[in-house]
Specification:
By secondary structure, the chain is an alpha/beta fold. It contains 4 helices and 5 strands.
Length: 142
């Protein structure tokens, strides 16, 4: 697993950004995300995650709040300011505006959270396409 770069790329896979400093957590959740069919990109620092969010197209973010110098709530708030529609799963500490999973992580509970945010992400992408189509049609009517 290489931090800060795409660790695997298969066409058609959705990307997930996993921000953690914990190698044990990274190993267990990375494997589960790959089994669920996601391409996983890793960041070990919050600033790196922010840069990747601005330059990437992620279905959702998994955030393990750590020694980043910010509260979990502030970390989520910053991520949402960079990409407002991006779902965030927070591991370990509750944060408003995110799906929260308690530590120690239950893999089935985590998998359910992944499926829930995947549905949210899919609906938002569908809504964006509908809005684009409506905008094109309205411009064509002018």
């Amino acid at each position: 697993m290489t931090v800060g770069t795409s660790v695997a790329f298969i066409n058609g896979m959705e990307s997930v950004l996993f921000c953690t400093h914990d190698p044990v957590l990274a190993k267990s959740l990375y494997g589960m995300l790959r089994q669920e069919g996601y391409r996983v990109e890793m960041a070990d620092r919050l600033i790196m995650a922010m840069q990747m969010i601005t330059g990437g197209d992620f279905s959702f973010v998994v955030l393990d709040p750590g020694p980043y110098g910010l509260s979990t709530e502030d970390s989520v708030r910053i991520m949402k300011s960079v990409s407002p529609g991006l779902p965030v799963i927070v591991v370990g500490k509750a944060s408003p505006g995110a799906v929260n999973i308690e530590a120690p992580v239950d893999l089935e509970e985590f998998k359910e959270a992944v499926h829930a945010v995947h549905e949210i992400s899919g609906r938002e992408a569908e809504n964006k396409e509908i809005k684009k189509d409506l905008l094109k049609k309205s411009r064509g009517a002018l």
